[in-house]
Design a protein that fits this description.
- 2 copies of one chain form a homodimer.
- With 139 residues, chain A is α+β, with helices and mostly antiparallel strands.
- In chain A, 17% of the residues lie in helices and 35% in strands.
- The first copy, chain A, contains 3 helices and 9 strands; from the N terminus they run αβαββαββββββ.
- In chain A, 38% of the residues are buried.
- Chains A and B meet through strand 1, helix 2, strand 2, strand 3 and strand 6 of A and strand 1, helix 2, strand 2, strand 3 and strand 6 of B.
């Protein structure tokens, strides 16, 4: 999506800073008020999961330092690991050039995936065999 | 989102395979026919960008081995790097546990971001200072 605010700042020099509230106000939350969030292990750099935040979840994540998402299936705020204990401690957060995606690097306690696998991307495409292979066991 | 197909396969043992076409047919393309795609550098493991694919873009990516997205701003198929030369060669593709996100590891030629920066996530949050800092210069 075109976003004139993010276009206007893309030529700023490295190191220049902008007010956090100003940038958050310009993020491209979709028609449901949500923005996609990529969660990456800060140490291994494995991509753990993709989920969604609304502005409240984003604010709570920044305030508490723990990842809080918006659950689209339960239609409620979802503090990751509140029931499972598999919490995620925020290490670093970046926004992308169009302001329509957030990348969070975290310290992951336990398994990121609800199946018990270390991350959610366990269905691997094998193009040559036209198959998808399960990587890792559920627990 | 709940997806009964992906729920039904989550307990399959590691190594079990499923037909690729069957899995793709069950992916949770949204109401615009799109699914979010995370693109990660296969070597550095840096997250380069987040974009979207429709089924045609997914098929073309798998067939050609080069990343093809759906451009929501131009409303057309977008073969990454066709004009800039900054192509992405697909190394590995995985789907997530809910079938609503795709992770692609790629060999990136040149800069992933249209600003000339190596990746799109160059707006870094500094919680303590309530600022967002620009990381790297545009070209």
């Amino acid at each position: 999506m075109q976003n004139t605010y993010f276009q206007s700042i893309e030529s700023l020099p490295s190191g220049r800073s902008l007010p956090l509230n100003e940038v958050i106000d310009k993020l491209a939350f979709n028609e449901q008020g949500l923005i996609p969030v990529i969660t990456q292990d800060a140490t291994s750099k494995d991509v753990l999961m993709m989920a969604w935040m609304n502005k409240t979840a984003l604010d709570k994540t920044l305030t508490t330092g723990r990842m809080v998402y918006w659950s689209r299936s339960r239609d409620e705020l979802w503090e990751k690991g509140l029931t499972s204990g598999h919490t995620q401690e925020l290490v670093n957060m970046t926004f992308d050039c169009d302001g329509d995606a957030i990348l969070c690097q975290v310290n992951q306690i336990g398994a990121a995936c609800h199946t018990g696998r270390p991350n959610c991307f366990y269905l691997e495409v094998n193009k040559e065999l036209n198959q998808v292979q399960i990587i890792g066991s559920s627990q």
